[in-house]
Amino acid sequence: MFRKIIAGVFCIVMAASAFTSCGSTDTKPTAGSSVAQSGTQAAENVDIANFTAPEKGDTIIEMTIKDYGTVKFRLFPEYADKGVENFVELAKKGYYDGLTFHRVIKDFMIQGGDPEGTGRGGECIWGGSFDGGTDPHLIHVAGALAYANSGSTSTDGSQFYIVTGTVPTEESLASLSETSGPISDNAKELYTKVGGAPWLDGGYTVFGQVIDGLDVVFKVQHVVVDKSSSKPLKDLIIESVKVGQYNGEEIRWYITDYDEFDPEEIVQASGKENIDIANFTAPKEGEKIVSMKLKGYDGEVKIKLFPEYAEQGVENFITLAERGYYDGLTFHRVIKDFMVQGGDPKGDGTGGESIYEKGFDGGTDPHLIHAAGAVAYANSGSTATNGSQFYIVTGEVYDADMLKEIEDYGYTLTENEKSVYGEYGGSPWLDGGYTVFGQVFDGLDIIFEVQNTETDNNDKPKTDVVIEKMTVSEYKDEPVRWNISEYKKNEE
After folding, report:
1. I need a surface site. Which of 96, 243, 273, 393 has the fewest CB within 10 A?
2. pTM for this prediction
C-alpha cells in the first residue's frame, strides 16, 4: 500500500475535512493560496550587492531561533527601502517574537512571519500588503532574506523566507535562462560558488543577507516536516527578532566559513526522540472507553482513549458520542490496507463539526502513532481543522526493506516506531500530520472486515457501513486484543 500511496492515492484531492495528503512539491515561497511566477525581465550585468559588507553603525537584524541559535542580517535600504522599513518596524514592535517557521523545504528555504502559522496570515506596517519591488543588485543566493508573496511583490506583507538552496551547474543555469529569462554573468558566478534559488529572481523582494549564523539556517532546514504542508512536526519558534547596529563584527557569508558545520551531524536534525509508544497501553479499571456497534457486524469495536496526549481530541469525541452524534452515520470512505473513515453527517467527506465553536487544533504527540487500530481525526490540511470526522487505521505490516523505503522517501522513524510498524502494521507516513487520540483494543477484526467491503471509484462503500450506536462507558477488565493476529476471524 505504501508504494500505491506514493504512486497516486497519497495525492488524491480530498473534500473539506477529509484527508489532504498530497506531498508538497512547490519550489516557491508563497503567502496565501496563489503561486507566484518567477520573473523574466532582461538580465543587466550589474554588480551583485548581497555580499557587500555593512558599514559600522548600519542597522542590522538579529533573529534568535529557539534551540538553534542567532542569525544576523545585513539590510539593503538602498535597493529595497520599503521592504527594509517594514521589517525593521515590525521587529521593533515585537511582531515576530514567538512566531514560527511554518514552512521548511530542505535545499530550498525556511519561511516564517505568519501570526496564524498557516501561510495565509500576516500584514505589513501600513496594513494589508505593500509592493516591495525587486532590484537586480539583490539575488536569491544562499542566505538571502526576502518576502513571500501570493503572486507578485505587490502582495508583500510580514511573511519572509531565508534561502538555503543548492549549487547549480552551468548547464542548469543555461537551461533556466532559456525557460525563465536571462541570468547575468555576475549572478551565474555567485550561484555556482555559493548556491541559492536563482529561479526566484525577479519575482520576490530580496532585502537582506545573512552575515552570521548561516549554519543555524542550514541546520534548521533539516527538521522533520509534514510531507503535505512542509510544516515542521515540532514548532520551530522565533524567540525574538531585534534591531541592532553593526559594530565591526566578523562577517561569515558562506556556509564554508563555518568550520564546525557538518551537514552529516546536524544538531537536532530529526527533532524526534526515541520515546516510548503509548498506543498499546492497556486501559485501567474505571477509565473511560468508547464502544462502537456497527450494523450487521457481530461484536463491538472498543477504543482506548489518551487524554494525556490528546486532551481536546478525546473531549470532543466523548462528548459527541454521548450526544448520540455518531449514531446512524456511516463510514463514507474505505481503503483496504490503509484506513476506514466516518463521522460525517453528510456522508460525503464535506461535513461535520466539533463541540467547539469552530474546528479545533488537536495537535500531534509523538507518543501516539498510526499503528493498526489507531483512531485519529481527519483534517483538511492541518490539525487546526479537526472536526467530527475520524478514521481507524488498518495499514500493513512493514518488513525492514519496506521501512528503509519509507525512510528513503524522507520520513524519519525511531527504533520504537519501526518496532511497532514491523509487529502491528499501520500507516507511518501519516505521523505528525493528524491528531491520534485513541486505539482499538478489541474488535479490530471488525474494522479489518469493513476494509474489505466493496467500494466505488470514490472509495465509498456500495453498501452503507452504518454506526448503529456509539457508547461511552468505564473499562471493567474486558479482554484486550491489540494485534489483528489475535483474532481467529481475521480475513485476509
Report:
1. 273
2. 0.55
